[in-house]
């Protein structure tokens, strides 16, 4: 089976083409998955001047890049076959595509120009992010996926973005005789626990069995990645803030007592919820109380902020792991690229819960990408002819 995956939930346009063997029940979690193409285009430099992602600009940039990126992925996968003469849409096809792209006439024009000139590629299905995310951005991916479904007469599979982050952490490279990238999915031993941390989400999710999720806790205000971005802005750093705070924190002097102590919000709340708005506000007031903060002062604040956020995430996750007697902990989302968070989870779990296996995605798979959406689509395989963007789509009810 070959699947084309589309990811447009925020400010990355991700297109991936995967190949694997399937059965009537879909693929197994140990299946060998060959990556024929995995393309990613980020908008971070465009949004840097806003200090965060501007939804309408994200939508515009997705609409400009998605079709050329699909064509490029088809070329990479050796599936790009030009026709001598471009296809002419049947009236029924034209009406269906016109309805799909009724709010995106420019995207429709690009779609017709680029993709009607190609032979129908040997692809069996399309997976697309349906949510959560920025709805204007999500719609670009969904409309394109549904239009391809009509044009190529293949099914479209809606995927939950957060499930994509979970499966991305379970991917292990497979050695092959060729240079092609391939993975297999490491089997989960249930119950398992997932901590999903990104610019829009901070959630602790229990996975009692295959395909089932229960949200144990979530942020009550800012997501941890959002807090990193806002604190970075206070410190005069650029977007995205997470990597910049980490770089600055490494310059802080090593001391046992922090120069500017910050709170550990909800550390002892007795539940698994999070809150980072107060921590962000504490940084703001700390900076206001310093007259002309030096670069070392800022480095100390960055380090203490990073230490505080990390301590809360680790403490809550370990408490949930102990309470629910899980065998595995899975970290997912863009914030897992943070070195402090990765190192602290690894060392703390090795010391306190040595029998629990920890899964952390490779850094290139921690950010939003089409590959994770394709894998999640292969695992789910439930198709839909009327996918709607859902900016607050949940894995499960809390």
UniProtKB/TrEMBL annotation:
Biological process terms in GO annotation: tRNA threonylcarbamoyladenosine modification
Cofactors, names only: Fe(2+)
Concerning Gene3D superfamilies, the annotation shows: 3.30.420.40
Keywords in UniProt for this one? Acyltransferase, Cytoplasm, Iron, Metal-binding, Transferase, tRNA processing
What GO molecular functions are on record for this protein? iron ion binding; tRNA N(6)-L-threonylcarbamoyladenine synthase activity
* Broad enzyme group: transferase
- Gcp-like domain boundaries: 34-80, 117-374
Recorded hits in HAMAP family, A to Z, give:
TsaD
PANTHER family the record matches? TRNA N6-ADENOSINE THREONYLCARBAMOYLTRANSFERASE, TRNA N6-ADENOSINE THREONYLCARBAMOYLTRANSFERASE, MITOCHONDRIAL
Can you say what this protein is called? tRNA N6-adenosine threonylcarbamoyltransferase
What is the organism field in this record? Candidatus Yonathbacteria bacterium RIFCSPLOWO2_01_FULL_43_27
């Amino acid at each position: 089976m070959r699947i084309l995956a589309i990811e447009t939930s925020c400010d990355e346009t991700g297109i991936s083409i995967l190949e694997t063997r399937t059965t009537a029940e879909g693929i197994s979690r140990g299946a060998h998955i060959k990556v024929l193409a995995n393309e990613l285009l980020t908008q971070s430099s465009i949004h840097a001047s806003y200090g965060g992602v501007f939804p309408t600009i994200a939508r515009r940039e997705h609409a400009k890049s998605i079709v050329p990126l699909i064509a490029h992925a088809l070329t990479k996968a050796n599936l790009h076959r030009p026709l001598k003469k471009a296809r002419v849409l049947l009236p029924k096809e034209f009406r269906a595509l016109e309805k799909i792209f009724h709010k995106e006439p420019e995207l429709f024009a690009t779609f017709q120009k680029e993709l009607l000139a190609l032979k129908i590629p040997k692809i069996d299905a399309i997976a697309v992010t349906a949510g959560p995310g920025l709805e204007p951005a999500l719609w670009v991916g969904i409309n394109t996926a549904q239009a391809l479904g009509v044009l190529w007469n293949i099914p479209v599979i809606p995927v939950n973005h957060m499930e994509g982050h979970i499966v991305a952490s379970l991917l292990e490279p497979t050695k092959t005789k060729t240079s092609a990238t391939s993975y297999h999915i490491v089997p989960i031993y249930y119950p398992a626990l997932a901590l999903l941390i990104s610019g829009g989400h901070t959630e602790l999710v229990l996975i009692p069995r295959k395909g089932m999720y229960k949200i144990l806790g979530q942020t009550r205000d800012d997501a941890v990645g959002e807090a990193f971005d806002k604190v970075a802005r206070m410190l005069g750093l650029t977007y995205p803030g997470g990597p910049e705070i980490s770089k600055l924190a490494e310059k802080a002097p090593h001391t046992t007592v922090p120069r500017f102590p910050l709170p550990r919000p909800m550390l002892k709340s007795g539940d698994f919820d999070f809150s980072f708005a107060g921590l962000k506000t504490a940084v703001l007031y700390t900076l206001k109380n310093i007259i002309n903060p030096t670069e070392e002062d800022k480095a100390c604040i960055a380090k203490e902020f990073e230490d505080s956020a990390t301590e809360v995430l680790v403490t809550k996750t370990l408490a949930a792991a102990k309470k629910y007697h899980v065998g595995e902990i899975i970290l997912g989302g863009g914030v897992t690229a943070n070195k402090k968070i990765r190192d602290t989870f690894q060392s703390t779990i090795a010391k306190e819960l040595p029998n629990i296996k920890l899964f952390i995605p490779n850094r290139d798979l921690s950010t939003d990408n089409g590959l994770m959406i394709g894998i999640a689509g292969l695992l789910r395989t439930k198709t839909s002819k009327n996918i709607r963007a859902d900016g607050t789509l949940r894995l499960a009810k809390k």
